[in-house]
Amino acid sequence: MADGSANIKEIILKGIPASHGIAIGAAYIFIKDNPIVEERTVGEADILSEIDRLNRAIEKSSKELNKILVFAQEKIGEAKAKILEAQMMVLEDQVLMNSIRKRIHSEKKNVEFIVSDEIGKYCALMLKAQDEYMHERAHDMEDLKNRIIRNLRQERLVSRLEGSVIIVAHTLTPVDTMILSRNHVLGYATDRGGITSHAALFSRALKIPAIVGLGDVSRQIISGDTLILDGYSGTLIVRPTEIHIEEFKKKQERMHKFEKELEPLKDLPAETKDGHRIELSANIELIDELDYVVVQGSQGVGLYRTESLLIDRDDFPSEEEQYIEYKKFAERIYPHRVIMRTFDVGGDKISAAVAEESNPFLGWRGIRVGLDRPELLMDQIRAMLRASTKKNIAIMFPMIATLAEVRKAKEYIRKAKAELRAQGVKFHDKIPIGVMIEVPSAALVVSQIAAEVDFISVGSNDLTQYLLAVDRGNTLVSKLYREFDPSVIITLKHIINGGHRQGVWVGICGEMAGHPLAVPLLVGLGMNELSVVPAILPEVKKIIRSLNYSDAREMATKALTLSTSDEIEKLALKFFRKHFPDIPMSDD
């Protein structure tokens, strides 16, 4: 443990809380050396030997990955473990592997160079996309490339660690997260990554506290440094004082006690003390999360990210494949509802040319892709309709920017219904249709959009990003990303009013929905539904059940008159401490 009197000053860093919990322990800097590959010419007589080396390295890599997959299936379940199948599928891609073999023959170069160059092309293309999903695939491909090269050289990657440690890394792949968990890992802290990254998903499944998006934390720490990792608030303290260590040990005890107290709430409604009901649901990616969602007391799924179906493949699933998956979802969550968002991926997933977009965040993504590639959208809509016979599925379109897009998307629903009727296929004819409001242009015309749909869900992460012109993944400007900014609060109220004028319910499924300070404010603004990550559900329910709706409305009215983020956040904090003295704050 760090000595509070030490000359080395403590550092306090803020990142994105990815998995709840508090860890106090020694840092271990996890660095995977990228193999340095030299280009060598090989003689004709050595070509078959090089190809034999490649085949043996592929076989060994496949065995290693299969062992990790089996381990993951045992620890976190088959559905989540499917993420790891992506690398195995690349190894089994005969087009890619035959291309490597042909290049060895034709170019007469050493196998390490050809593997690095050929797979490296795919990595570079994916990284240019500036899309989180594609970045994850790029890191997976890079990881696989390095694994093959290590096995060509018969080198071993050290994954066994001594003692209990907090892993600090630039980035972690799902394979890294799983392999390292065989040790006594207290927590994960990374420079890069988001709350929906696969490494974050694995951390939550493994119940290991994690913070991502810390900037350059891996360069500010050395192995052995004492760390406090607070997965509730996203705070990482490097070389903490003894005062801070004691403070967070107490917080750790408080949070454990508080989480035990939340267990009896799971079957109770999310209703304020004065009888105002809020629908509380969960954001999920994988079907294996449904059991956990129910245990946590969710009233359903407010956001099912269907992109999870793309995890272990390079093409789009067929209508039949999607139907089977959606039907399982509907049956497992019944009688609760599941809101299925159509694929929200960038165009780079479909067309390599799109990867050259200079600003993909403003490019071909979300509903734009679906409307330009109607065959993909129609497959998904038909699959959702076919799975809707229990009448507990709703369809939601992402990245809506204009009223015209809503009307066009609805046309495809009408067309899909007509086709299914003609085939005698049963479906829920009055399936609810909703949209995500995350683009300012849509927020401005929300009343007209609400007249066309059954519900609205606010994607607060992107809405905040677009309103403030801040990419929160960019460390140069991420401090300007403020979800309590007056422009965000005023826009949320405008969206809620616009939906309610048309008799449409309004929910929110971004990170703000699970922020304890923001919950009373959102309720007071008139939000009908909050959809949050499953782990935070009981705490959000506790806040709602300890709240008077009249008090929340009064506070929200006051917030709308304030001029800065700091003023609104201070108001929310003061309200929280006054009305919920028995609820520990994540930042306490």
- Which structural category do the helix and sheet elements fall into? alpha/beta
Biggest sheet: strands, sense, closure? 8 strands, mixed
Round the mean pLDDT to the nearest integer and report it.
Answer: 87
CATH T-level topology of the largest domain: TIM Barrel
The share of residues in extended strands comes to 5-15%
Radius of gyration: 25 Å
**Largest sheet, spatial ordering of strands:** 1-8-7-3-4-5-6-2
Global shape: globular
The CATH architecture of the largest domain comes to Alpha-Beta Barrel
Low-confidence spans? 1-7, 347-355
Overview of this structure, please?
The longest helix has 30 residues, at about 45-75. This protein folds into 3 domains: about 10-30 and about 160-260, Glucose Oxidase, domain 1; about 45-150, Orthogonal Bundle (Enzyme I, Chain A, domain 2), CATH 1.10.274; about 275-580, TIM Barrel, CATH 3.20.20. With about 600 residues, the protein is α/β, with parallel strands linked by helices. It has helices at about 45-75, 80, 85-90, 95-105, 110-130, 130-150, 175-180, 200-205, 215-220, 240-260, 290-295, 320-335, 365-370, 375-385, 405-420, 440-445, 445-450, 460-470, 485-500, 520-525, 535-545, 550-560, 565-580; strands spanning about 10-15, 15-20, 20-30, 165-170, 185-190, 210, 225-230, 235-240, 280-285, 300-305, 335-340, 395, 435, 455-460, 505-510, 530. The chain has 23 helices and 16 strands. Residues about 1-5 and about 345-355 have low confidence and may be disordered. It starts with 10 loop residues before the first strand and ends in a 9-residue tail after the last helix. Strands 1-8-7-3-4-5-6-2 form an 8-stranded mixed β-sheet, with helices on one face. An 8-stranded parallel beta barrel has the order 9-10-11-12-13-14-15-16, surrounded by 6 helices.
